[in-house]
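Appendix B, record 7
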Amino acid sequence: MARVGAQGRGAEQLTHESPRFTTLAWALPVVSIGLLLLAPVLLDHDAWMRWVHDETGVMELATVALLLPAWVGAGWLAWRGRSLPTIARGWFVLLALGAFYFMGEEASWGQHVFGFQPPEAVAERNLQGEFNLHNADAWYHDLFNEIPRTVAGTACVAGAGVLPWVVRRKRLEPDAQRRSWFWMIPTVALVLPGLLAWASNLPEKALEDTAFAAEGTWAFYAFVAAADETKEYLIALAMALYVASAALRYHAWAGCPEARPGHPDTRVKGTAPDAPTRPVPVR
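Structure tokens (predicted):
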């Protein structure tokens, strides 16, 4: 089998993730969920509330910490990704704005870190007395909390469960990198993080108000009490991995000119100069 000159490590990252990144993308959500299931066993009630459920606990801070690189990475792709299709750059602008909003709302725009109190008019309309929009009462709650959650959940299902498989072979086509979908649709490596983020609150819906998950039981702490925090953390993790995937593949493409269609090194040995290029096979 003839080898393609661009079949190096950088070129391979254009169509699929490196094994190391795929392992990381699959391990992080699985390990995180495993720790959350062990937390009720290892911690007493007060420690669990402080570490998992508190607004300044590990879960909330980890969610914000994941959204920060997602925001920066998406902004970098939109600003520095001059070779990206226009629609893809616009998509990363929207993603950067979404990550910034998500991050700010999770941190209540710094309220719990800096210890300031929201204006009285804001606190009165907020279900938890916080300086944010997603906990506001009345229709504000649906607009700034339920709708974004639904959009994120739908994106996880479509982006992880369906679309990566639809375009998996199309990623091998010449000039695929010049199509917006190439950068917007996640790769197969992100299937598990996306599906786990979407399905993370299904146990709560199934077990809530059952004797098995009664207050004080292991199942209550593992599946019900922190369901919202778990879903937010896993969505933030999926976003961070998604942006990292796109940024790494773009960096490989921008820094590997021989991987671009039309470059002499992409031709199979023995073919004429104007022969069609050969895509790098997915392993």
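Remarks on this record: The radius of gyration is 22 Å. Confidence is low (pLDDT under 50) at residues 1-12, 261-283.
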